[in-house]
Each structure stands twice: as structure tokens, then as C-alpha cells.
Design a protein that fits this description.
With 124 residues, the protein is of the alpha+beta class. The protein contains two helices and five strands; from the N terminus they run H-E-E-E-H-E-E. It has a single domain, classed as Trna Endonuclease, Chain: A, domain 1 (3-Layer(aba) Sandwich). The chain has a five-stranded mixed beta sheet, with helices on both faces. Strand 1 and strand 2 form a beta hairpin.
């Protein structure tokens, strides 16, 4: 039969930081809806609900912030792909034009050996 493809070290690290972000967002009162939603365009790391708003969250990890934080890595091109992927999610879920939406970024970087998390609401 088929076996799952082994995850690379960077994929394993990414999953760890997505879990860290999810835990933080849940503590802030957001409700979990979906993880790693993907279509042919791109993947959305976390889909959450904040009261009546659907929140599409991009999780970005940097080993250090010497060259900027995770938010700075979400280029206009990536933003456009995330928006189209979010539209795909909303259409497939029957929620298109029925709910408010926003795009957040959770930026995580190492600072003195500890993970420092910054949650940017309405990032774009």
C-alpha cells in the first residue's frame, strides 16, 4: 500500500511552530476551524474563527530577526495567493460573501534561545 512521505526537518519545524501559534491563538479566544488548507494556488496554515469573523493565518518562523521578522517575508505576491486560497476555502465551505474575513500573520523568531511570538492582526 501507500505510505506517507517522511517529513523533512524543515517541515517538522514548521509543524511545531504552527502548533505553537495555534495554541497562542486559542488562548486569545479564537476557535480552530482548519489546519494546512491547500488548493492548487497555495496553503493557508491556520483557519480560525474570531467571533463572526473567519481569520486566515500565515505562520512565519525566523531563526533570528537580524534580517527582519516573519511579516516582512509575506510579499505582495504571497498575499495575493493567500487571498485567492482563502476565497477558494470560503466558496467550498459555502461561506463566500456570508462572513467577514481578515488575514493575520503570526511571526515567531528565536530571541536568546526562546521563541518570541508576535501576532499581527489585519496584517494585509
Amino acid at each position: 500500500m501507500f505510505s506517507k512521505k517522511p517529513k523533512s526537518p524543515s517541515q517538522i519545524k514548521g509543524l511545531y511552530y504552527e502548533k505553537l501559534a495555534l495554541k497562542h491563538l486559542k488562548k486569545q479566544g479564537l476557535k480552530f476551524l482548519h489546519k494546512n488548507y491547500h488548493c492548487r494556488l497555495r496553503e493557508i496554515d491556520l483557519v480560525m474563527r474570531d467571533e463572526s469573523c473567519i481569520v486566515f493565518t500565515e505562520v512565519r518562523f525566523r531563526e533570528n530577526s537580524d534580517f527582519g521578522n516573519g511579516l516582512e517575508t509575506v510579499t505582495k505576491s504571497k498575499q495575493q495567493k493567500l487571498i485567492k486560497t482563502a476565497q477558494h476555502f470560503l466558496i467550498r465551505s459555502g461561506l463566500y460573501e456570508k462572513v467577514a474575513t481578515r488575514f493575520d500573520v503570526v511571526s515567531i523568531c528565536k530571541h536568546h534561545g526562546k521563541s518570541e511570538l508576535i501576532w499581527i492582526r489585519n496584517a494585509f
